[in-house]
Amino acid sequence: MTAQAPISGEIERSGGTWRFAANQPLRLDSGATLAPLEVAYETYGKLNAGKTNAVLVCHALTLDQHVASTHPTTGKPGWWNRAVGPGLPLDPERYFIVCANVVGGCMGTTGPASTDPATGAPYGLGFPVITIGDMVRAQAMLVEALGIETLFAVVGGSMGGMQVLQWAADYPEKLFSAVCIAAAPRHSAQNIAFHEVGRQAIMADPNWCGGAYLAAGLRPDKGLAVARMAAHITYLSESALQRKFGRELQRDGLSWGFDADFQVESYLRHQGASFVDRFDANSYLYITRAMDYFDLAANHGGILTEAFLKARTVRFCILSFSSDWLYPTSESRDVVRALNAAGCRASFAEIVTDKGHDAFLLDEPQLDQTLRGFMNAQAQARGLG
Amino acid sequence: MTAQAPISGEIERSGGTWRFAANQPLRLDSGATLAPLEVAYETYGKLNAGKTNAVLVCHALTLDQHVASTHPTTGKPGWWNRAVGPGLPLDPERYFIVCANVVGGCMGTTGPASTDPATGAPYGLGFPVITIGDMVRAQAMLVEALGIETLFAVVGGSMGGMQVLQWAADYPEKLFSAVCIAAAPRHSAQNIAFHEVGRQAIMADPNWCGGAYLAAGLRPDKGLAVARMAAHITYLSESALQRKFGRELQRDGLSWGFDADFQVESYLRHQGASFVDRFDANSYLYITRAMDYFDLAANHGGILTEAFLKARTVRFCILSFSSDWLYPTSESRDVVRALNAAGCRASFAEIVTDKGHDAFLLDEPQLDQTLRGFMNAQAQARGLG
Is the Cβ–Cβ distance between B180 and B317 less than 8 Å? Predict the structure, then answer.
């Protein structure tokens, strides 16, 4: 079966989430194929008769399809309850909102913890290395299977924003608008360095077992927790950490030992400990690798503008946060410059905040307002009520 | 024996370095005492007849007394060969230069790998938690034992700079001048957070054995390497990493696996792997803890100015680097403001460079020039030839 064949597949509600089992393999940028391909996703609202109101939300590294619904493991509310919901910028009364777990993930979409049909055991390191392009190709298969020809919008922050840019490069004809928040067109040396620390922390854990920990009944929780702690620092600005924690102590006085004396230590340890309950260590390896490999210009002769030449009809909104040092505003400006040079329509705003990269998930009224304004204007242009 | 008794001790050349065995215990800020206390140090040049030309160089977290002499383990040249040597700003022809391994270190000064006299085994976690103040108190004992009443200068970068500030607060009457490079008067929440990641990486390594790895004949090398990798990123600026490595690959093309594809990954892995050959994991825990506990104002009613009120005769030089995000210029400015408010003489320069925190160890001509200018002016004021 070739990729040209119409994409369809079994769609069912299972295990608290929607599952799409594709009728064909996923072609990967590495040259390999992945089969079977299952994509776990959530939807909110209804697809209208003209199928013009579909919004695809792309999630970040450690998030999932539960954008506005309770997480089945943690019981926590959806990760973007601030943006997706009645009366919010992405309103299910108006839009049919889809969010799919990425390929390589661990919340139902095929990933390294899935069963390798060749062995009957979990893939582990037998899972093929994937890219942001592969994630988007799987989403495009789901979108086609859902009968959606054009997405009203594709929206995402951080790695979600990278997927948005990839959508614009690979499927511009399927997009009406695109919102890229706190992302970058390539992973910088510092970005790669932080990810490599996390991967080394996981692989240093003897319970990782060369990636075969599931078969061994073990979990590299300590390594994964250290990886999360290191990454988490990069999600916050120095000033946010200082404001939130400063040098505040957990108890009266110092412990004169290696307990968590400072609140920031206790906070980080908690971030690490709670992360391992909801995430798979190998998924962390594969998804960080996909982000490191991301370099949108590289596949277009090294010229970012070339990636967007076919996206002139797409209405772009590029947003950055002033205190984001992981994907600083300069990276978003590079995207905007390339969009402008390609003749695309691009709105750009740098939102002034001290909350750092994670601002896209936090109480940031200026983000809500900007997102709402852009979505409403596009809805009007698209004739959505 | 009380601390008021004259400090002396056995001084001998042993194992390629000088050793001072104190005749009394080291009183610690925790309330504990450390005995016996040995301090390993190096000297360059000769103490003049008036004993007015002694310069104490204070080292950073993972450095040691081999400021301008070959490291006995790695065979590498001294870590500050750029600044200490004939014709250089700290010239042994003019000055008697002393550099001592800090308490808690692993290059000969008493630390967690030393033998605990109570057990006959290495201290491990039985070693008392130490502070920057304790490091300085041990140095002051050595300086007294060497018969030096007043140091012509105390000089240091990073944690060495913290020791310089502590010297000015605790022993202002023993200082003629003080040079503090790329440091801060307190550890910020982000500084603590990065250190905590490193500590957790070490303690997550099963070979750490609750700190008793030496007795078990093991080494938590993997954890220590991860700690070093995470820390190393903070020593370089984002732009230095980008300039040095960008997205350059190790080989032609991607590996589509988890080998070090990018040069920055390979570089970081090398930093981790070579570090474990020369450093002790428990020393890393204790010294990072000392840095996290550092808050010079806290012991002076929360007012940094109070720390310097007795240092009005000391001539200060405070230097920062524009791209240092670990101890940014704003921290040095806080020191300068406090010095000014205390009525101290303070020169300040922010050196514009993209090399980040590690600039104090690198080819940075403006640093050499500034240091030389300050040292020469002080030498003239002190009547040194």
Answer: yes
